[in-house]
Every structure is written in C-alpha cells, then in structure tokens.
Design goal:
The structure is a single chain. By secondary structure, the protein is an all-alpha fold. It is built from ten helices and no strands. Helix 2 (about 40-50) crosses helix 4 (about 70-100), helix 5 (about 105-140) packs antiparallel against helix 10 and helix 7 (about 175-185) runs parallel beside helix 10 (about 215-240). The longest helix is centred in the middle third of the chain and has 39 residues, at about 105-140. The protein is flat and about 65 Å long. The mean pLDDT is about 85.
Length: about 250
Amino acid sequence: MSETDHDGEQSFISHLVELRARLLKAVAAVLVVLLGLMPFANKLYGWLALPLIRHLPEGGTMIATEVASPFLTPLKLAIFVALFIAIPFVLYQLWAFVAPGLYRHEKRLAVPILVSSVILFYIGCAFAYFLVLPAVFAFMTGIAPAGVAVTPDIGRYLDFVLMLFLAFGLCFEVPVVLVILVALGLVTPEQLSASRRYAIVGAFAIAAVLTPPDVLSQTMLAVPMCLLYEVGIFGARALTRPVPPPPDTASGA
C-alpha cells in the first residue's frame, strides 16, 4: 500500500470517527431533552389536544382504545417534542461535520439557508397549531350527524396532528428550496416567475393530498405556499443580484 493510499485510509477513518462523535452528541442532546420532558408528558398532550377539546360537544371527551395508549401516546409525543426542541443542536452537529469541506462562499450561503429552514419549519408548525387545527376541528365537529358522539382516540389524534405539523413544516420550506435550486443553477428567478401559475396549481394539489378533505384546511395550506413561493423568488433574485464593482480609486491626471 502506497503512502498516499495509507493517508487516504487514515483520513477516511478519522472522518468516520468524527461522524460517530457528532451523532452521539446529537442523540445525547435529544435524550437529555426527553428526560426533562418526561414528567410533563401528560401536560404536553393536554396542551396539544386543546384545539380539539375546545370544539367537542359539552361533556365530550377523548378515549383510549388500546390498553397501553394512556402511557405510550404521551411518551411518543414527548419524543417528538424532544427532537423538535433539539433540532438546532442536531443540525449544528451536522454543520460542524460538513463545514470544513466547504468553500468560503458555500459557507456564506449554507448558514442562512440552514437557519432559515429551521425557523420556517417552526413557523409552519405554529401556523398549523394556532390557526389550522382550530379551524379544522370546528368544521369537523360541526358537521357530525345528530346522535353521533365525537370521541376521538388519543393515539389517532396524535398521529393526525403530527402528520399535519410535518406537512405544514415542510411546505413552509418553499423559499429555501427555491433559493437552493437557483444557487445550484437548475433554474433562474425569471423561470420561477414564468412558472407562477403552475406553482399555484401545484400548491393546491399538494394541499389537497396533505390536508383533511375540507376546502378550509386545503386553502389554509395552499395560500401560504403561494405567498412563500413569491418570497422564494425575491430571495433568489437577491442571491443572483450582481455585486457592483469597487469604485476606481486611481487618481486622475
């Protein structure tokens, strides 16, 4: 084995060791947050269930159809909340691993994209909780036939809410996706502007797939996506805006 091959193998092993250390730190951060949340798991679920409970008929309650659901469902929620809280630290570990291999201009672009993606995901989840869920449950409980008791299962409710959070969190990443596509040279801001009508149709199609089958929730996802598409075009134009040359400091004769 040549010295070059030996150095390459040593470098590869060192990268694997560093990746393992970064992953262990990320997992440890999630576990630490989870341990802190465990005593409040039931309160967390009660907070999550407020948008539904407020729209249940008088005397209506949620039910647990499985024996272990009263324990496992709040625990599952606590795990997701721990990951949700620890995401910035987890992404920092990922960034610390890949940053040494990036060029300076790539680092300048990657940092705002990474920060923006986290913030937009949080905003999407908050939008779903404070605006979408109350509207959806008000509609769903309001159309229940007479004589039908609305008693949702706690496990099914958690799965539904988490799916909605994930859908809104990811769909709010539209500006980040557009900026990345422009940065990679796959599209231009002009092409994005010209495709606006197709983007609107696509937004409503995605909303129809990801949200419950009611016009209200579909519109509440599609409209922000259309607005964020415009934000993405603006950000892409700012990214590709030519930098003016430095002023000529040479003294005239």
